[in-house]
Specification:
Layout (H helix, E strand, L loop, with lengths): L1 E5 L7 H12 L5 E5 L5 H13 L6 H19 L4 H23 L4 H8 L1 H13 L3 E3 L7 E2 L10 H12 L5 E5 L2 E4 L4 E3 L4 H12 L4 E6 L20 E3 H9 L11 H6 L3 E5 L8 E4 L12 E14 L9 H11 L4 E6 L5 E7 L3 H11 L1 H5 L5 E14 L9 H11 L6 E4 L5 E7 L3 H13 L4 E8 L3 H21 L1 E9 L3 E4 L9 H7 L2 E2 L2 H11 L4 E5 L4 H4 L2 H6 L3 E4 L9 H14 L3 E2 L10 H10 L4 E7 L2 H9 L6 H10 L8 H4 L2 H13 L9 E3 L12 H7 L4 H13 L2 E10 L2 E10 L11 E8 L7 E6 L3 H16 L2
Parallel strand pairs: 1-2, 1-8, 2-5, 3-5, 4-6, 8-10, 9-11, 18-19, 18-22, 22-23, 23-24, 26-28
Antiparallel strand pairs: 6-7, 10-11, 12-14, 12-15, 13-14, 15-17, 16-17, 19-20, 20-21, 25-27, 25-29, 27-28, 29-30
The structure holds nicotinamide-adenine-dinucleotide and L-homoserine (HSE).
Nicotinamide-adenine-dinucleotide (NAD) binds next to helix 16.
Length: 807
């Protein structure tokens, strides 16, 4: 035999009741069906009673709604005729008479309320019994006996078990019983309180020692987290009773914990099933549940609307009875305490309570500790609102080390501040308090790290979609699926901006149609607006990607890193800004547990900075760096010829995406100076830009006017360059713009190299770096390849993103 309980939504309409019938008829054994009232009916009855008790109020509209709900369902199921019509009418008349009585006396006692509160179940049980062929209705109120604590009556288990056993000793078939209602020894109606129908089902299941209790509801069972916030939350297949109780205490209102006590004591398994998806497995609750070793956490629960009340003062240290008085004061005004936290210093006690109880709690505590407050022994009662309590639950936590470590480091890395923590010695639950504004991020982060560790999400906020930025998006689009399939990395473009517009989408902007999304966006581009929106979206694992060349953008890195968002910069301005700023950004990243990466600042996609870091971190010392670091200049000097003059080569470098947005930055040597400065710093030398000697090969006046002036005037240099080029060619030499760092000093400038020089054969826009170090002494380490261009630079940014994701 088994017991099936159907909740209010499951019997909320004719269609739903037909679904219930189907489920019940599929059972292959004797079945007891316990039903709630039609969804919402009990609340309507209580409301009507409240209106009636006010004396002057008119309960009729509410009563009409109750009647309409039932009539409609009966009409749909029985074409509005048959015995059910009369049964419902009779019970609804009874309800009306009692409501009229309440109006007349203007008073509503708990006893009277219990006479009507269960009318919904009395009707629904008849309804369901009549719909299921062969089913009989059995009245729970005649079998479940309670005391006279109306509203939340206590069950007399001896009498109840006897009655139930007698009723069902030789029963076979299907019985339908109303949930929630019972009677006292005098035969007066009582009700079982919150979760009443579940409780009825559990009492019956335990008494008859059935092999299974099924709670049919409108969700798939216990989920790993609140599915309204975590779209990836999934049903937990198995839970122990204790885990289910812990999860139910917080947020997940699948069952009300005290109701499962009778079946828990008998070890009867409970299955939570979805009436609307009967094929899904649901959640099975048992004494010992299967838990995969790698999943010690079963679920995450949360409740919002929490206030933290803290009693603080040095006068509390070592004084016994303080906490007793504190909690007695709270209990005296019926304040439910959700979480307690006290540090061993005993200087303060904090409790998390529902925000609706704050005033009551505060005044009760003030009254209790009035003397201590006057004497200065209690310094303050601190009230912190708009908080949420989050808990991870799992019995296997007690056998696994590192759970708390993983939890709190994940929270820290994502910049979520933890306000209070509580963990019971049973290690079944770790609870902590966060600001409600951080709840979504908290749940995402924790869910990802404990349940979806096979899929890491990286949320990209991209600024600048010129040569490098747009190529990056193309590469991300091409690689997106592969990364997900093979590396379990989900990259989402959560925000993007050009100079005109910006767009944001938590679920990710389409990587093909991002331009259209930007065009359609109504948000005008603004740097601070972008950063603020990114911060307020507060998404975990976020990374800001700077593909502009803007100094202004770089001034925001500190704030961005400070908000626990990593920064990947193609933009070289920050890493070559004042040393204090550069080192400050690195420290900020370290402090916040995020990354500040800029591999493409030198040699585009070539692994120049990472290699240097590896050398230095493994104890090597950089003695000398010689390098060709400008893709643009190398391209110019490889392309310049009798037919293609200097001015033409500059345009070509620009068109091919090698040059800076303003090519004067390349031609002036500033770009190369920035690069050698960054390499010197990464080698451990605190150089400033002013320390780099720049030997220009183009006269200063060409850099003084506007960019337009530059383009107009630059051809004036063509003839002179051609003359020098011819001489150079005759001597079998080539121009290379070389950066040098040695003995703590750096310079950049044009050099004529002969054919035996390693830089001589450096083709196209290639770069070459030679590291002479203590280890690479006789023969320096060489890194050579494309040093500029859209695809290689975007690939370098992409590689930095992969580094941020730590896959
Ligand atoms: N092109 C390369 O080979 C290469 C190699 C390494 C590093 N980089 C660096 O990459 C960065 C981008 O270079 P690029 O070649 O793509 O230049 P680009 O001019 O093609 O693109 C830069 C884009 O940033 C946009 N932008 C500027 N300020 C902005 C703001 N405040 N908000 C939104 N958008 C803004 C510009 O409108 C432009 O579309 C530069 O810092 C450059 O030094 C480039
Ligand atoms: N403008 C740069 C881009 C790569 O940093 C160059 O030409 O080298």
């Amino acid at each position: 035999m088994k017991v099936l309980k159907f909740g209010g939504t499951s019997v909320g309409s004719a269609d739903n009741i037909r679904k219930v019938r189907e489920i019940v008829l599929q059972q292959k054994e004797d079945t007891i069906v316990v039903v709630s009232a039609l969804g919402g009916v009990t609340d309507l009855i209580l409301n009507a009673a409240k209106i009636a008790s006010a004396g002057s109020g008119d309960f009729q509209p509410v009563l009409e709604e109750i009647k309409r709900r039932h009539k409609q369902t009966i009409a749909d199921l029985f074409n509005g005729s048959g015995a059910m019509v009369y049964i419902a009418e009779e019970l609804l008349d009874e309800l009306e008479q009692i409501l009229t009585g309440i109006t007349l006396v203007g008073e509503l006692t708990a006893k009277t309320l219990d006479r009507i509160a269960g009318i919904g179940e009395r009707i629904s049980s008849h309804l369901v019994a009549q719909v299921i062929p062969g089913a009989v209705r059995v009245d729970s109120a005649e079998l479940i006996q309670t005391d006279s604590n109306f509203g939340k009556a206590r069950v007399n288990f001896d009498a109840t078990n006897r009655a139930l056993k007698e009723q069902f000793c030789d029963f076979s078939g299907i019985a339908v019983m109303p949930g929630f209602i019972a009677k006292n020894a005098k035969g007066e109606f009582t009700t079982l309180g919150r979760g009443g129908s579940d409780y009825t089902a559990a009492i019956i299941a335990a008494s008859l020692e059935v092999h299974s209790l099924e709670i049919w509801t409108d969700v798939d069972g216990f989920m790993t987290a609140d599915p309204r916030i975590i779209s990836k939350a999934y049903t937990i297949p198995e839970l122990t009773y204790s885990e289910a109780m812990e999860l139910s205490h917080f947020g997940a209102k699948v069952i009300y914990p005290p109701t499962i006590l009778p079946v828990y004591q008998k070890g009867i398994p409970i299955r939570i099933k979805n009436t609307f998806k009967p094929k899904s497995e649901g959640t099975l609750i048992l004494r010992t549940a299967k838990t995969p070793k790698e999943r010690p956490i079963k679920g995450i629960s949360s409740i919002s609307g929490i206030t933290l009340v803290t009693l603080q003062g040095i006068g509390m240290v070592g004084v016994t009875g303080i906490s007793m008085r504190f909690f007695t004061a709270l209990a005296s005004v019926n304040v439910n305490v959700i979480l307690i936290s006290q540090a061993s210093s005993e200087n303060s006690i904090s409790v998390a309570i529902g925000e609706q109880s704050v005033e009551l709690a505060e005044s009760a505590i003030r009254e209790e500790f009035a003397k201590e407050i006057d004497a200065g022994l209690v310094s303050k009662i601190d009230i912190e609102s708009d908080l949420s309590v989050v808990a991870i639950v799992g019995e296997n936590m007690k056998q696994t080390t590192g759970i708390a470590g993983k939890l709190f480091s994940t929270m820290g890395k994502n910049g979520v501040n933890i306000i209070a923590i509580a963990q019971g010695a049973s290690e079944l639950n770790i609870s902590w308090v966060v600001k409600t504004s951080e709840l979504r991020k908290t749940l995402n982060v924790v869910h990802e790290s404990f349940f979806l560790s096979e899929n890491v999400e990286l949320n990209v906020f991209l600024m600048g979609i010129g040569t490098v930025g747009s190529n990056l998006l193309q590469q991300l689009q091409k690689q997106q699926q592969k990364l997900l399939d093979e590396k379990h990395l989900k990259i989402k473009l959560a925000g993007v901006a050009n100079t005109k517009k910006m767009a944001f989408k938590r679920e990710g902007i389409n990587l093909v149609s991002f331009r259209e999304e930007l065009d359609q966006s109504e948000i005008k581009s603004s740097l601070s607006g972008f950063i603020n929106e990114m911060k307020s979206m507060n998404i975990y694992n976020s990374v800001f990607v700077d593909c502009t060349a803007s100094e202004q953008v770089s001034t925001f890195y500190n704030e961005i890193l400070g908000s626990n968002v990593s920064v990947v910069a193609a933009n070289k301005v920050a890493a070559s800004s004042a040393y204090d700023n550069y080192i400050g950004l690195k420290n900020m990243a370290k402090q916040k547990g995020v990354k500040f990466l800029f591999e493409t600042n030198v040699g585009a996609g070539l692994p120049i900075i990472n290699t240097l870091n590896d050398l230095v971190n493994s104890g090597d010392k950089v003695l000398k760096i010689e390098a060709v670091l400008s893709g643009t200049l190398n391209f110019i000097f490889n392309t310049i010829s009798q037919e293609t003059p200097l001015s033409e080569t500059i345009k070509m470098a620009k068109d091919q995406g090698f040059s800076e947005p303003d090519p004067r930055v390349d031609l002036s040597g500033v770009d190369v100076a920035r690069k050698i400065l960054i390499l010197a710093r990464e080698s451990g030398y605190p150089l400033e830009m002013e320390d780099i000697v720049i030997n220009r090969f183009i006269p200063n006046e060409f850099f003084e006017g506007s960019l337009d002036d530059f383009w107009k005037n630059i051809s004036q240099l063509d003839a002179g360059f051609e003359e020098k080029r011819k001489t150079l060619e005759a001597e079998d030499k080539k121009w290379r713009f070389v950066a040098r760092f040695e003995n703590g000093k750096a310079n950049v400038g044009l050099q004529e190299v002969s054919s035996h020089h390693p830089f001589y054969d450096l083709e196209g826009s290639n770069n070459l770096v030679m590291y002479t170090t203590e280890r690479y002494h006789e023969s320096p380490m060489l890194i050579k390849g494309y040093g500029a261009g859209a695809s290689v630079t975007a690939a370098g940014v992409f590689a930095d993103l992969i580094r941020v994701s730590n896959i």
